[in-house]
C-alpha cells in the first residue's frame, strides 16, 4: 500500500516537473549571463549585411555613418538609430566597437535588437569591453570573424580586431592587418577600422606597431573609438585619425567618400 | 510577461494535480539529532543564471525560514562552451509557510551570489591593466522571488520532496532595467525550476 502511494504520489510529482520543464523550453530561461546562445536572426550579421550591400551604379561617391562605444547607453543608441534612419543619403553604418559594457548575453541581445532597426546595412569591429567574460565567443556568434574586409565603390574597408590586454596581453594578428592594408591598385582608398587608436592605452603611440603599419602603408584615414571623445586630425605622420566619441555624446559622424578623397562631418542628434 | 504568467499557471496546475493524487496524511518529523554540517536537502535546478543545470546542497537555518544553498552549475552542455562554470551561494527566505493538507506552500524571495568563470572574468585584474580599469565581473548578485511546494514522504532517508520555481535577474540587468528607458523592467527577468530531495 505504501509502495503504491509512493509510486502514485511521486509519479504525479515527476509528471509535474516534466510538464513544468517542457513548456519552459520556449520561455525566457537564462542559463548564464555568459551564455553563447544567440537567436538565429542575430547570427552571422556581418555576412548578412555584406549580402545587403548592393551597388546601384558606378558612382564612386557615397556616404557612410560611424558610431562607436554604445556600451549600455541604450536610449542614446536607439536615438542615434532613429536619427540615422531619417536620412536617405547614408549607404551603411560602421560601429567602432564596445557594443556592450560587460559582454553579457542580454547586453548583446539588446544591442542587436537596436542595430536590427537600422534601415541600412551595418558593420562592426570588436571592442575591448566586448572581449570580457565570454564576449569574444558571443561576438563571433552574432557577427562573425573578428577580422574581415569588404570593398564598396572602390573603397576597401579593413575591419581589424586590435585588442591587446583582453587577449591575455598578446598581440592581435598584425600580419593579417599589414597584408590587408596593402593596396594593389584596385582600391581608390583603403580605410582601416579598429577599436583602439595608437595613441590610446594598450598602445605606445607613435612607436607602436599599429601606428607603424598605418604609416608604412600610407593610410590616409584610420577610424577608431575607445577614447570616448571625438577627435579628427593627424597625430604623428601622414595618417588622419577619426575617433568617434561615445554615443552618450549624442553625435555620430558622416564620412563622404568621393573618388578616393574624403570629408568628415560630426553630426549632433 | 504573458509567458511568465502562463508558465506559472501551468506549474501551479501541475502541483495541484499531484496534490489530488496524494493520500499521504502523516507528516514525518525529524527525530534524529542532525550533525550541523549535514545538509537538509539536495537540489537540482534548471536555468536561473547558474547554469543549464545546477546541483547543490541546502542548509535550513533560522527555524527553517532561511535556507542557504551551495550550488554548482554548468552551461557547457547547452552552449558548447567549455568554460561556463558557476558556483552560487543561494540565500532563500521562506516568507510565509501555508500548510494545505499534506503540502507546505511557501512564497520565497532571496539573493543568490554567483561566481562565474569564463575566459575573461576577473575578481582582481591582471597586473597589465591599470588600476580600476574594469569593475570586477566574476561575482554577480542575483535577486529572485518564487514559490515552493513541499510534500513529506514516509521514508527513513528521503523525508520529503519540494518543487520550486523562481523569477530572477542579475545585478547588471537590474541596473539597466532601472537606469534606461529602452530596457523594460519585464525584460530583465527569467525563470528557474528546481526539485529538492529532503533528508
UniProtKB/TrEMBL annotation, chain A:
InterPro entries registered for this protein in UniProt: Calcineurin-like_PHP, Metallo-depent_PP-like, STPP_CPPED1
Matching Pfam families: Metallophos
Any one Gene Ontology molecular-function term assigned to this protein's record: hydrolase activity
Signal peptide limits: none
Domain (Calcineurin-like phosphoesterase): residue spans on this chain: 62-229
Protein name: Calcineurin-like phosphoesterase domain-containing protein
Biological classification of the source: Bacteria, Pseudomonadati, Bacteroidota, Bacteroidia, Marinilabiliales
